[in-house]
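Input sequence (277 aa), recorded before submission:
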Amino acid sequence: QTVIDALMGAADTAGVQIRTRCKVEGIDHSVSPEGRRFSVRTVEREADRKGVIECDYLLLATGSARLSYAWAKGLGHDLEAPVPSLFTFTISDTLLQGLAGVSVQDAIVSIPSGKPKKPLTQQGPVLVTHSGVSGPAILRLSAFGARVLHETDYKTTLKINWTPEIERGIEGVVEQVLEAKAKDSAKTVGGASSPTFGLPRRLWQAMVAKVGLKSDAKWGEVKNSDLRKVAALMCQCQLEVQGKGTFKDEFVTAGGVSLKGVDMKRLESKSVEGIYF
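Predicted structure, token format:
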């Protein structure tokens, strides 16, 4: 309520008129000697009384309202079909089973973009859920990849580097894992005192199990080839995405007025001067 009161107070100070139960039926545009003019046709729902609001500048801040797309198109703008954005990834890989609630604070995630050698990539926290993965990095990836993911029916390959702080990629990870073998040869790979290289212990133990190693195996007895497989899971993990998280209604969509027709510095229409988004 405090925020609402602050906004309403600022609007009142600026002389803003707020009209409720007043429907916009259409927008007309004309250029006169006095300047550009917009006519917003309205109808008051209770009195069924029609009216016109004239202005020199017009801000379309209607979100994903379907009717507003028609207004923008009528003013010369191209439209991009809205698709879901900001969603979690559904994954059923055995690596993640039983890990719901486990999080990694810094990971690099990527999916194919449709362009060779140019994957869509984000970095940040990743959270394992009951149905797959979520977290800020995943949500940002779903936002920037919304259209690509829609075109693939939300089926793609997700690559995760769980240990980006280890330099030189797979070579650096392998080097640290083999150093641990030499240093902690008497410890068990899945034990409470085993090194986890910055990973949550449960995730590390899941990686060990994923490559077929027993948690009570001694570091010194594990084959280097098996340790390289674990290293690959740490920084080159590949998981098959089978869909997106399901919500009754998508609360964010990507699409609407094409950004090609908008001056991104001023957020003003390129085709009709005086219209802002």
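Checked by second reader. DSSP finds seven helices and 16 strands in the chain.
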